[in-house]
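User: Fold this; tokens only.

Assistant: Input:
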Amino acid sequence: MKRWLMCLVLGSSVAHANLDLMQSSPSLNWHSIENQSVRLIYPDYLQAESIYIANLVEHYSQFVGQTYGIQQPKLFNLILRPEMALPNGYVTLAPRRSEWYASSIFFPYVGATEWYQTLSIHEYRHVNQFDYFNRNGTRYFYYFMGDMGEVVAVFLSLPSWYMEGDAVWAETKYTDAGRGRSPRFMARLKALVLSDRVPSYDEFLNGTYKTDLPNQYVYGYALISYATQKYGDDIWQRVIADVARFPNPFRLYSSFERVTGQSFEAFYGEAMFDLRQKWSADMPPGQEPVEYRDNVSPYKQGNKLYYIHQDLDSSPALMKEENGVSEKLTELVYSKDFMSMAYGPRHAVTTEFLPDARYAHKSSSDLLLINLKNGQKSKITSGQRLYNPSFNATENKIIATDFREDQSWNISEYDLQGNLLQTFSLPDMKVAEARYLDDEHAVAIVSTKTGYKSIVEVSLKDKKIGKTFLQGSRNLLYGIFVDGNRNLFFEAQYKGQNEIFRLGENGVARCTRSKLSSFTPSTDGKEVFYSEMDFYGTKIMSAPLAACESLPATELVDFNYLGNGPSDNYNKFPLQKFPEQLALYTKNADKYQPKPYGDLDRQLFIPHSWGFLLGRGGSLGVQTDNYLRTLSLGAGVGSSPEEKGSVVDFSFDFKKYYPLFSVQAEERKRNVKDFDTEDKTQWKEDTAGLLMVIPYQYKSGLYNFAVSLSGSGAYTNTKDYKFNEAELSGSNYFYKTSSSLTLAWSKDPNARSIQAPWAVAYLAKYDNAEQPSKSVLSSYRLFQTAILETRGFFKHDGFKLSYDQQKQGATGYRFLPEQENAAGYVFSRGYDYEDVPGYQKYSVNYTFPVSYDNFNIPQWYYLLRAYGNIFYDSTSVNGALENKTLNSYGAELLLESKILRFLPLTVGLRSVKRLLDNENRFEVFVGSSLGL
């Protein structure tokens, strides 16, 4: 039974790319260097960083794959993207490569190693995972679908917790830091384990709408670590080798039991129990159950307390609490992992991550001012990469970390209108954050070229470092706050917790003794305010300054801060120091000869993916791309879902510049049935043409706007006509043009949203087919659709109103159906589509949650939630012979589910009444958000 299901799933996989926006700016001049481990593709002005990265990868290639028995890793291609504001890195196939975003550690989430050092282990571990898994049965996936076949095999059989947890394990094992030595990383898992509300394995894997769960990096690291402690470092090599024999969603669990003799379910329970036992000394006092919430970044000003609040039912918001009453000042986009909030007498300041209008590999982080009186927001810079901003005492200047185009990490000062006052770098240092001590001095967290962080005083006048407050270390320092007496408050890790410390004239003092962890300190001169983690998220706490206890500064450096528990020392790995790291910036520099890298890489002409798609239609496709994704080729053979005719197509996409171009050719067999008749016309048509697309996107806070203009021209030849199976002589040709406008505006949903709280979308498309010598054969079509989504009466219900119109010539050329939907209808629900000169469709939907209960049949089915929809559809059809009104109404129950622990699937049950003939229908339909 399980093997039969695998064949069914495999039959629905395909790799065929469309136009995409995943490029960098066209002005970049790309070069490449390589050694035995990596070919690095980078902008020419990043030559120094590229030598360092190439040497790092070569160094770690000796170690990172050892537990998989990989002694000589295969060379891989690495693209260094220089224009992103948010740090990231990933490994992918189709084609096989890794992409890293140029950045540094200005945030506390990924541990305390140097940024590229982290990636050279974590992402290289992913390269090893893919390469090791590509054997035995996985190779048949590759033969069947190319690189995308291996992606499918991985997706089917290796859960993301294994991939990411194993990479975090490696970055911890092979360094003296890594996320496994950061208490912040494990804090939420620790809270759940100690709360007696340990999620089941299926809850971790599939998610829940009941609470916030640690991501796959966290619980994956816990499971990978416990298995290696119990069964040895090579346990996952042995398990994955067995999984690769026959990749499928059940295989990891059966392979684990086959290799270890222990069921995976028993292993999972044992791993969670082990963590609970080792964390038991940190058990917090009992708590009354509450809904999950995050309250962070507090600031007390007089009798007003400001803080950021978020829960499962709402977007992040800046709150003001006064006399025990809380007021929402404004909603905003806020991530505690990457962003900070600072306050002044009249304003708060933070940053806003924004996409580029065209290029998905370019983004910015700009300053956002918030009026503390009325919540009004003002973005005062544009196109910068600024982090961790704060005010001076008089609130007429802002200081921030500034990631410049030349890749330097500067201290920059701005006025409140966003004008740059000054910017400067510190030699051989990267600035993570800075705060004013006074108008001429600042305190900063800086890191060396090898990632060691220290707290220093900086002269803003002389642009250089003065005294050092805290010596360099791998301690995860973050979140500086400076009070009116020049006392510094900051976060640092200490003995398994993230704690709040004060640093002043009398040295270092510890202000919190958390059982879990504490974050984001501030003070009003009497008390220190902070965010403390508990079983149900985080809450705002305070403690008198007098309670801060003196602590030798040496306790926070030289690895004296490490504890002995799972939070920062779960695996008891020896510290792997790296004294040669600094020398890698120049090692073998004369041997790396940069070569120009152009768009016409040979990879463009090597197919990386091929495969089948089966559904209402079917297709076999093949795809190629160059590494920069500026050029791609695609071809396919299949059948269309509505007309059931054969299709052969080819495309060449050019995506480097602002307009995107696609040269397209197609041979298609058409089958058209006239509305309300049995007449059927068939013919073949060959088409060749050019498509141009001009995209634009914009984001402001929680609101998103996108517009796309497209135009195309094509030549189409038609032949081999049949009418009701009778052959007709002759052929024709047409000059076809098409233009379209797409607009979309929406507000970001929150964790439990079923649809966007507010959204408007509009699409208009005009097609024209001209036959120069026989105007009666010419035709046109106008299609437009509009959608409005609004809030409902309660938290997560909502209305969706839509309007569709199509109008085309009654005679002449017949266009393809504009909307083909496997789960829905072109006409009103319950009525099948037929070719007509025109129609207008109105639809009203009311959607509402039914249940968040998680029903589970282990390994087979998991219900995330159920929600309902009540609808009414009305379609006016303009036929060639008569007009009709097709009305229907009904209800739908939708089950948001996971099948086989990997496939997101919404199962719909629909009851519909057709008013034309009073026929009742009951339908089952499915939809999936799956994307490979």
